[in-house]
Amino acid sequence: MATIRLIDIAVNFTDGMFKGIYHGKQCHASDIATVLSRAWSSGVDRIIVTGGSLEESKEALAIAETDGRLFCTVGVHPTRCKEFEESGDPEKHFQALLSLAKEGIEKGKVVAIGECGLDYDRLHFCPSEIQRKYFEKQFELAYATKLPMFLHMREAAADFCAIVERNKDRFTGGVTHSFTGSAEDRDKLLTFNNMYIGINGCSLKTAENLDVVRGIPIERMMIETDSPYCEIKNAHAGISFVKSTWPSKKKEKYDQDSLVKGRNEPCLVRQVLEVVDGCKGINDIDQLSWTLYHNTCRVFFPQDLDSAADALLAGRRNTP
What we know:
The chain is of the alpha/beta class. The chain is built from 11 helices and 12 strands.
């Protein structure tokens, strides 16, 4: 595993499952340290913790400060955009997000604005007009901080792409994560310069999903778990390409040496890498991991890139 270098761009460490809480019931102690240990030993060397609301972004920053390999985002998820108006002062709420992002940048921890975007699959949480208003508003955060964007698009490609098009000069680049869209949606996203597509287990469920992934150039891709969600399940089309496995036990029989059955975690980003490698017929997992790592650094960790690395990548771009 030594040659594999991985960055998981989406981990929801603020979720109760990583505190041992499932459906409101405490099943085991908080185990983020154990989960991280498993990730580091599996080739993961950085993780971006997702913020999806003002309060969650504060918690994500606090978690990121506990380890030099953890980073985070600051933003408001489309399904939670009502919090701007429910705060009683949307502009004050926006300024609080901006202040938090600036604080996190000074600490070297906040690497993106997000998770923001549009989700028309869950309009019962937030109406589409409020989602659109505050998705557009969060480009002001990206412009003010010069950060890239960590984006969410679910059943909303036309409106999402229209808003990105209007604001394409206001952000430096980004990733549309947890992509589950059509080939047409994929191709729309790829028309935006410096827009990458994030792949996880939810992107690899069906044969059609795999066909869509085959059409994403590896130079425009990142990988993630979106844990504790979006694991690759045995019924998914992508499972046939998975080579790495870990023992798992039910949450009621928690064992720190095993994964919790049904809870995704960052070490499993390696399985996403394996499925991408297999379904695209690359058969060079080390080189694929290097390319995806480089993509992620280019957007979120540009200080780690140098001309030699770019030259090396350019010389290897004959990968399918």
